[in-house]
Amino acid sequence: MRTIAVVSAGLSVPSSTRLLADRLATATLDALRQRGVEARAETVDLREHARDLADNLVTGFANERLSEAVTTVTTADAVIAVTPIFSASYSGLFKTFFDVLEKDSLVGKPVLLGATGGTARHSLALEHAVRPLFAYLRAVAVPTSVFAASEDWAGGDATTRSLHDRVVRAGDELAELVAARPPVEPVDPFADPVTSFAAKVGGRG
């Protein structure tokens, strides 16, 4: 059983960002199933962790709720990461979550990138802002990133043909990477029971 972590940085309820994240997850699971690979999606809704993330920034420690969300992402076989576009870039909430991850925790991990915005003018933010972030984290981003503007939702939660095709193509690309890799081994929480205080706070500015 493979696990796909779905990170959504949408702020509203309902959220077009969460809607796109769910569509990408469904497309990926369908593509994996066609390859004979069973998988499940686990969603991390960042709006639920806004205060947890702020606390982590100033203390250097994640509380239990945030730790569970971080573990979901870092131990998954792949990640789907979707952000709203604000001021031509990813949202602050989205960036903060990936800021608090441990160094190298996403190295080599397959990632599908998605974003939402009011108009298609913001679509290039995926390539000039979001993709470079994951390149820095040394994750393996699939070639197709998916941007959804307001007009792509066809007056509701149904997608236009163009968006649907991009979602299916991106999901297939992520499934191809996941199927070609061995499953991520579960982490033994007792394997390294002693971690010094200095190690925990090292590198925090």
Automatic annotation (TrEMBL):
InterPro entries: CE1759_FMN_reduct, Flavoprotein-like_sf, FMN_Rdtase-like_dom, NAD(P)H-dep_FMN_reductase
Name by which UniProt lists this protein: NADPH-dependent FMN reductase
Pfam families on file: FMN_red
Residues annotated as domain NADPH-dependent FMN reductase-like: 4-153
GO molecular function: oxidoreductase activity
Organism: Actinokineospora bangkokensis
Residues in the signal sequence: none
Taxonomic classification: Bacteria, Bacillati, Actinomycetota, Actinomycetes, Pseudonocardiales
Record keyword RNA-binding present: no
Domain of life: Bacteria
Keyword terms of this UniProt record: Flavoprotein, FMN, Oxidoreductase
